[in-house]
Amino acid sequence: MVSSRDFSVQVLSDASVLTQYDDPEPDHELGSHEHSKYIEAVTESTFRLKVILHPTFNIHLLKHDDVVRTCFYFDDDNLGWCLDFERSYIDRCRASGQPAYREITQIHMKDLNTGKWLKGDLSFGALLTSKWHTGLEDTETHPDSVSEESNDKQIKPEDIKGLGSIRITIQRINRQATGRYQESRDGHQNRCEELPEKALKGKAVSNIVKYIMARLA
Q: C-alpha distances in angstroms, 163 versus 18, 82, 106, 130, 210?
């Protein structure tokens, strides 16, 4: 698991904590407060994420109503899901000798077709590869006749930059105003589920995060 002296992050699937390995080729140079690991995912299996704050995590500057906010971003999506550790909750956990933790087991998302909010699980979906980009439906050209050169122009580097990644941020938040923090779910980027194999440029990615939206929230 991603771990430091102050916190731990676990990925759990089928009631087991998945083993995390050192990333030999991180996508960018890591800062002093960044950690990068990789896991072996089983396609179509569901998973959940757990963040644990150790007693050494510094909360001395947080007031009673302040929080430690942890946010989860999947496949480098531009919006994430956030969970808060209230200062009062952390204090209660420490007083009882228990670790303070938060889990994301399901997500809520608005169905743009029906306007209803759905609740569903997270799973490791398969990333499909092909000889052409699936965004060619609006052309009359048969896919088999499309050259690889024209296919590559359909894919931008930013489209695949974070594929197969789970990014988690942990921040101390000083609340300046009352009110419940809530983030819109209407702004998520179009998800890339299939792309030319050549576009991966040798990157070992076979899974993306898939949302299984099956129940009314």
A: 19, 20, 20, 16, 12
Across the chain, the runs of DSSP E, i.e. the strands, are: 2-3, 7-13, 16-17, 21-22, 37-38, 46-53, 67-74, 81-86, 100-104, 106-110, 117-126, 128-130, 166-173, 194-196, 207-216
Give the model confidence (pLDDT) of 126-149 as tens digits: 877 665 444 434 444 444 444 444
**Which of the residue ranges 30-34, 47-51, 119-123, 124-128 would you say has the lowest mean pLDDT?**
30-34
Q: What is the pLDDT of residues 172-197, one digit of tens each?
A: 998 875 555 444 444 444 555 655 55
CA distance to 73, 90, 111, 181, per residue, from 217 (Å)? 21, 28, 11, 18
Q: Structurally, how many domains does the chain consist of?
A: 1
Q: Which domain holds residue 72?
A: 2-216
Angle at 171 between CA 88 and CA 96, to 5 degrees: 30
Calpha distance 3→35 (Å, rounded): 8
Q: For residue 112, what are the contacts with CB-CB under 8 A and spacing of at least 6?
A: 186
d(CA 62, CA 168): 21
Give the Cβ contact number of residue 99 at 10 Å.
14
> Which comes out higher in pLDDT, residue 171 or 164?
171
Give the whole-angstrom CA distance, residue 82 versus residue 71: 4
One-letter identity of residue 10: Q
